[in-house]
Design a protein that fits this description.
With about 270 residues, the chain is α/β, with parallel strands linked by helices. It folds into 2 domains: about 200 residues, Rossmann fold, CATH 3.40.50.720; about 35 residues, no CATH class. Strand 2, helix 2 and strand 3 form a beta-alpha-beta unit. Helix 1 packs parallel to helix 2 and helix 4 runs parallel beside helix 5. The longest helix is centred in the middle third of the chain and has 29 residues.
Length: about 270
C-alpha cells in the first residue's frame, strides 16, 4: 500500500501473473494491476493471442511492462513454465491470480468423463500447479499474494453447471486450506466468487450457445437489483484490494447482487 497516499494503491516494483488474461475478467485484472505499477505476465490460449497482444499493449500504454505467454493449462509442464517465465523475464513473482476457467455446460445425466476431466484440469489442477511453482519462490522472500477467481456457483450452482460448480467449490476449499498453510511464509491467499459478469465470452454463450439472441442483456438487467451486470472492472478492483491489503488471508468474497436463496429461474 502507498502509505504516503493511501487513496492510491501502488504495486510499483511488483510482478503479477494472471492466467486467462487475454480477454474478459482476466484482461481487466491484468490491466488494473498494470495501471497501478505491476509488471504483468499475460496468459491465455494460443487462439487468443491477438487479444493477449492488445492487453500487453494496453498495459505498456499505461506505463508498465508486460509479456504474453500462450499455451494449454491442461499441460503440467506448461503450467509450471508460466511462473518460471515470469521469474526469468522479471526476476520475481509477487502476485498470482488464478483466473482461467472453462464453463462447459453439463448435468449428472449428460456430462462425459472427458468433459469432467477437462473442467477440473483447467479450473482446479492448473491453479494447484501454478500455486506450487509460485510458492517455491514466494516463501524465500516471506511475501506473496495469491488470488483465486471462483464463482458464486461454488455454493451450489446452476443445474446445468455440475462440473463447473464442483470445480469452483473445490477451488474455494483449496483457497482456505492453502491460506491456512501459507501463513507461516506470510503468503496471503484469498478468493473472489463473482456472480453474473458481462464479458465477451458470456455474451457469446448466452446469445449464441443458449440461443437467447443479441438483446438478452436487456432482459437480464431487469433481474438485477442495481440495474446492471457486474463488469471485469468490478472484479479487477476487488483483486487490487486483496493485492494491496497486507492483513487479509483465507477470505472468500462473494461478489454478487442477489442472495443465494434467490428464485431458481434467475440466471445467476
Amino acid at each position: 500500500m502507498n502509505h504516503e497516499n493511501p487513496g492510491k494503491a501502488s504495486l510499483t516494483g511488483q510482478v503479477a501473473v494472471v492466467s486467462g488474461s487475454t480477454q474478459g475478467i482476466g484482461a481487466g485484472i491484468a490491466l488494473k494491476l498494470g495501471e497501478h505499477g505491476a509488471r504483468v505476465l499475460v496468459h491465455g490460449r494460443e487462439s487468443q493471442r491477438v487479444g493477449g497482444e492488445k492487453v500487453v499493449h494496453a498495459i505498456e500504454a499505461a506505463g508498465s511492462e508486460a509479456v504474453l505467454l500462450t499455451g494449454d493449462l491442461r499441460d503440467e509442464p506448461h503450467c509450471r513454465a508460466i511462473v518460471r517465465t515470469a521469474l526469468e523475464r522479471f526476476g520475481r513473482v509477487d502476485i498470482l491470480v488464478n483466473n482461467a476457467a472453462v464453463v462447459h455446460r453439463g448435468t449428472i445425466e449428460d456430462t462425459s468423463t472427458a468433459l469432467w476431466d477437462e473442467v477440473f484440469e483447467v479450473n482446479l489442477r492448473a491453479p494447484f500447479l501454478l500455486c506450487q511453482e509460485a510458492v517455491r519462490h514466494m516463501k524465500e522472500r516471506k511475501s506473496g499474494c495469491i488470488v483465486n477467481i471462483g464463482s458464486v456457483n461454488a455454493h451450489c450452482g446452476l443445474r446445468k453447471l455440475l462440473p463447473y460448480s464442483a470445480s469452483k467449490g473445490g477451488l474455494m476449499t483449496f483457497t482456505r486450506n492453502l491460506a491456512n498453510y501459507l501463513t507461516q511464509y506470510r503468503i496471503r491467499v484469498n478468493q473472489i466468487n463473482p456472480g453474473w459478469v458481462l464479458t465477451e465470452g458470456e455474451h457469446h454463450v448466452v446469445a449464441v450457445v443458449e440461443g437467447k439472441g443479441e438483446h438478452w442483456v436487456e432482459a437480464a438487467l431487469k433481474s438485477r437489483p442495481f440495474g446492471r451486470l457486474l463488469s471485469p472492472a468490478d472484479i479487477a478492483n476487488a483483486v487490487l484490494f486483496f493485492a494491496t491489503n497486507e492483513l487479509i488471508s483465507g477470505a472468500v468474497l462473494d461478489y454478487e447482487q442477489l442472495p443465494f436463496d434467490a428464485p431458481a429461474d434467475l440466471p445467476i
